[in-house]
Write a structure and sequence with these properties.
The protein is an all-alpha fold and about 270 residues long. It contains twelve helices and no strands. The radius of gyration is 18 Å and the shape is globular. About 35% of the residues are buried.
Length: about 270
């Protein structure tokens, strides 16, 4: 993808998101959060593609995917007032459908269009389909890593805000802040298993799930970024301080150090 084509995707993103804002302050605050998130995911992607030494065409494609990956979030929130896919709609599928229906990808080669639609459709899936070819898998893995880096940042900022004054918290809270955590969620973290969103019961479960994402990250620079920001240490600090949690903390932090050092830069 050329720089010019990337600029066109940026212009589309700007116009598309702008038309979802309305006179509801709650909706607007949540939409604005996703606009800012999309740009930061594009920024993380830019950082990652430099470390992965992609050529310019590939780097532009990756950045285009990053800015468009949450296209479905905007109509989702306007329609359902939630970002919880489970209570509304699969935002990846919705995003891909919108991009197919709009003219925005017409100027791009059919191959690149397919890669973008695939990455948008599957960026939030628990498991990637086995059938993806090498490029589709690579670009989908890349946006998933960049997305996670920014979601870590977002959830930590939200946790700090919420702790300061829960009553003044301006965003949607998806789970109740009750004590303890679900044994099923904890054991899935310890065994590096996939956690089903449907078993989450409270904020601690949701934090455990976010910590378990490290086992689903793909590229060595992503692990180094997580380590650099201290995301995982901070997420653990919000959980109950018991033996299980302390043991899991050690395991997860060791894994990040190992993966950041050992995994090949390009898979
Ligand atoms: Fe995202």
């Amino acid at each position: 993808m050329t720089r010019n084509q990337l600029d066109q995707l940026h212009a589309f993103f700007h116009a598309f998101t702008a038309r979802h804002f309305n006179n509801d302050a709650f909706v607007n605050a949540n939409l604005q959060r996703k606009v800012a998130h999309s740009w930061r995911v594009a920024g993380e992607t830019r950082w990652l593609v430099n470390r992965l030494r992609l050529d310019e065409e590939q780097a532009n494609l990756a950045r285009g995917i990053a800015i468009l990956h949450d296209t479905g979030r905007f109509p989702q929130f306007v329609r359902y007032k939630t970002y919880a896919d489970i209570r509304s709609i699969n935002h990846g599928v919705l995003g891909a459908e919108i991009l197919e229906a709009e003219d925005v990808l017409n100027a791009i080669t059919a191959r690149e269009r397919e890669i973008i639609l695939t990455a948008v459709r599957h960026h939030g899936d628990r498991l990637l389909p086995e059938t993806l070819d090498k490029d589709k898998r690579f670009f989908t893995m890349l946006v998933r890593d960049a997305d996670k880096l920014d979601i870590y940042r977002v959830v930590i900022e939200a946790a700090r805000m919420y702790q300061q004054d829960p009553a003044a918290f301006p965003y949607e809270v998806e789970f109740p802040n009750t004590p303890g955590y679900s044994p099923a969620v904890f054991s899935a973290l310890e065994t590096r298993g996939k956690i089903d969103y449907r078993v989450l019961r409270n904020l601690n479960d949701s934090t455990l799930l976010q910590i378990a994402w490290v086992f689903d990250m793909n590229f060595a620079p992503t692990f180094r970024r997580v380590q650099h920001y201290g995301f995982i240490e901070e997420l653990f600090s919000y959980l109950p301080d018991d033996d299980n949690i302390r043991r899991a903390r050690r395991q997860v932090l060791d894994y990040i150090t190992y993966a950041g050092a050992k995994r090949p830069e390009i898979s």
